[in-house]
Amino acid sequence: MANQQMDILSAVLEQSAKLMEEQVDAQLNKLSEMDEDELDKLKERRLEALKKAQKQKQEWLSKGHGEYREISSEKDFFGEVKESKNAVCHFYKSSTFRCKIFDKHLAILAKKHVETKFIKLNVEKAPFLTERLRIKVIPTLALVIDGKTKDYVVGFTDLGNTDEFSTEMLEWRLGCSGVINYSGNLMDAPTAGKKSGSKITKVEKKTIRGRSNDSDSDSGDD
């Protein structure tokens, strides 16, 4: 039985390798059949794509992306989220230990996901905004897309209910909301940092603070 299973596995691997080899050969043949003008056009398109990506990155950096920053007031919050398509705002208190755990992970993700702005705001300096977004639990992350709060990460509930969750776990959770460009598998959370025996699957869009996602709270001025 074991030998039969090994034979099947070997056959599958051999078939997969052959298929991959055929795909590579097809790409090489396609390139070899291109004339010089076509190759020049291909190189030009790739160069333009690289230039566009670099320009976009510089634009993000000019708006404060690429670093995890503290903002000082509610007024700053409205300005920050309006000028960026994607933003993550950590509502924190200095006296709350778990806020420092979020700080550590968010500082890492801010550098990795330059497409998203990462900021933090002390709730004691933002009573109106905290009430408006109905933030009751500290820490809470407000996930803002196109100026509207689309989702919240409330405490560590979605992260395995443990202080020891990994940066990858938080990255996955943000990816589920669409606030970052996530390249992993959204259907299953990373295992690192999970409590033993816990099972976490994709976070579906859900009602936020008693409201459905069809009536997202507007983070802009009324």
TrEMBL record:
Where is the Thioredoxin domain positioned along the sequence?
73-157
What would be one Gene Ontology cellular-component term for the protein?
centrosome
Stretches of the chain forming a coiled coil according to its record: 17-59
- Composition-biased stretches (Basic and acidic residues): 201-214
State the Pfam families in the record. Answer: Thioredoxin
Enumerate the residue ranges of region (Disordered).
Answer: 190-222
Top-rank taxon, per record? Eukaryota
Keyword Nucleus tagged: yes
Q: Where in the cell is it found?
A: Cytoplasm, Cytoskeleton, Microtubule organizing center, Centrosome; Midbody; Nucleus
Instruction: Name the principal localization, coarsely classed.
Output: cytoplasm
Tell me yes or no: is rRNA-binding among this UniProt entry's keywords. Answer: no
Q: Which UniProt keywords apply?
A: Coiled coil, Cytoplasm, Cytoskeleton, Nucleus, Phosphoprotein
Quaternary arrangement and interactors, per the entry?
Forms ternary complexes with the chaperonin TCP1 complex, spanning the cylindrical chaperonin cavity and contacting at least 2 subunits.
Q: What does this protein do?
A: Significantly diminishes the chaperonin TCP1 complex ATPase activity, thus negatively impacts protein folding, including that of actin or tubulin.
In Swiss-Prot or TrEMBL terms, this protein is called: Thioredoxin domain-containing protein 9
Organism annotation: Pleuronectes platessa (European plaice)
